[in-house]
Every structure is written in structure tokens, then in C-alpha cells.
Amino acid sequence: MRLRIADIGVDTPLMGLGLASDGTVQVPPVAAHSPAGWYSGSPAPGQLGPSVILGHVTVGRYGDGVFLRLSRLRPGARVVVGLQDGVATTFTVDAVRTVTKDRFPTQQVYGNTDRPELRLITCGGPRTGDGYRDNVIVFASLTAVAPAT
């Protein structure tokens, strides 16, 4: 799978992510050129429900992360996920929200929906020691499915 967001210059492969030992969703490794990752416990992009993709805003001593500019997306922006079967799913951004991590909207991100949707998640807001205070969440809806070009 591959994620492309032209408006913010993202073009990354997607690695598979599962659950960490504490029951939270895994995140991609903090490493140079770390890709974004699709949470395999969520629907595949284009399937009914919210597909969840996570990426870093920064990757420690390695610099900028793949989702450095995620908070700059605006409603109407296009997000394309190329699937392994050669299909390209296109999503249109509905909303971009920044929320404090202690108020993460779990149900709105992972809860069932009546249509195919996409959630893109990264850290944001001010730095707090070794991390960030907030999460940036992009909410998008499926608007097209076509053979990949």
C-alpha cells in the first residue's frame, strides 16, 4: 500500500501496524525515512468503516517525519491510498482537528461509520519533554475508487 497527499508533499509506503503490548495502537518506528503505517485492526482503505493511518511529525534525531505538514491540510484536500491489488482509493478531507492527547476522541476515530472513511493521525501542538501534547487528526471520506495509474 502507498499513501499520497499532494497538498503537503506526502508520498510514502504504508507499513502494517498492530497493537503494542499495552493494548494501544503501534506507531511506525522512530527512524530515518520512517513510513506511515496502516493499523491492520481497522478496515482496509475503501472498506466500510474508518481506516486508520499513523505517521510521525518528527522522528527524533532523524528530523522531520512523514506527517510533518499534516496539520496544514484543509477540507477538500485529496488523499490517495494505493492498495496492493492495484486499486487507488481517493478520500476527500472533511475536517482537521488538533486535540490534547488526554482528550483523544477514540469513538470518533475508531468507531463504526456507515461509509468508508479515513483517519490520519500524528502528534502536534507544543513539545512536552520527549513528545508532543496534542494529536492532529484528519477525517476524510471516500470519494472515488479507480485502477491505480
TrEMBL record:
Q: What is the lineage of its organism?
A: Bacteria, Bacillati, Actinomycetota, Actinomycetes, Kitasatosporales
What single Pfam family name could you report for this chain, choosing any that match? Sortase
What's this protein's name? Sortase family protein
| Molecular function terms from GO | hydrolase activity
Species annotation: Actinacidiphila rubida
Highest rank taxon of the organism: Bacteria
Keyword Hydrolase among UniProt keywords: yes
Query: Which UniProt keywords are listed?
Result: Hydrolase
